[in-house]
């Protein structure tokens, strides 16, 4: 029987951290160093950078900056009228 490889826990970055990854890439930092500092893979860093425009558009529509630091996904509310009322 072959031994199963140990699965690792997923690392989910907040929107604020994703924006920081984009800033570091733009400043010329190597992808490998960024990946190591945030404990994610190289492909994750590349994916974040490719979705930079969507990320900045979404963050600009958020009302408060405090929700950006704790929020981790860009999903919209299922009932937008209720969300805007709150």
Describe this structure in words.
- The protein is an all-alpha fold and 86 residues long.
- It has a domain at 11-63: Arc Repressor Mutant, subunit A.
- Helix content is 58%, strand content 0%.
- The protein is built from six helices and no strands.
- The chain has helices at 15-26, 31-38, 42-50, 52-61, 66-70, 80-85.
- Helix 1 crosses helix 4 and helix 2 (31-38) crosses helix 3.
- It is flat and about 50 Å long.
Keywords for this entry:
mainly alpha, Arc Repressor Mutant, subunit A, 86 residues
The ordered H/E elements are HHHHHH
Q: Describe the largest sheet.
A: none
- What share of residues are in beta strands? under 5%
* Portion of residues within helices: 55-70%
Tally of alpha and pi helices: 6
- The CATH architecture of the domain at 11-63 comes to Orthogonal Bundle
CATH classification, class level of the domain at 11-63: Mainly Alpha
* Rg (CA only): 16 Å
Mind sketching the topology for me?
Blueprint: H1 15-26, H2 31-38, H3 42-50, H4 52-61, H5 66-70, H6 80-85
Helix pairs in contact: 1-4, 2-3
């Amino acid at each position: 029987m072959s031994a199963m490889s140990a699965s690792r826990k997923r690392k989910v970055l907040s929107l604020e951290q994703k924006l920081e990854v984009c800033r570091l890439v733009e400043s010329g930092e190597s992808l490998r160093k960024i990946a190591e500092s945030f404990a994610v893979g190289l492909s994750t860093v590349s994916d974040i950078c490719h979705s930079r425009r969507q990320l900045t558009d979404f963050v600009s529509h958020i009302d408060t900056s405090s929700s950006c630091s704790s929020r981790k996904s860009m999903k919209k509310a299922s009932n937008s009228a209720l969300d805007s009322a709150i």
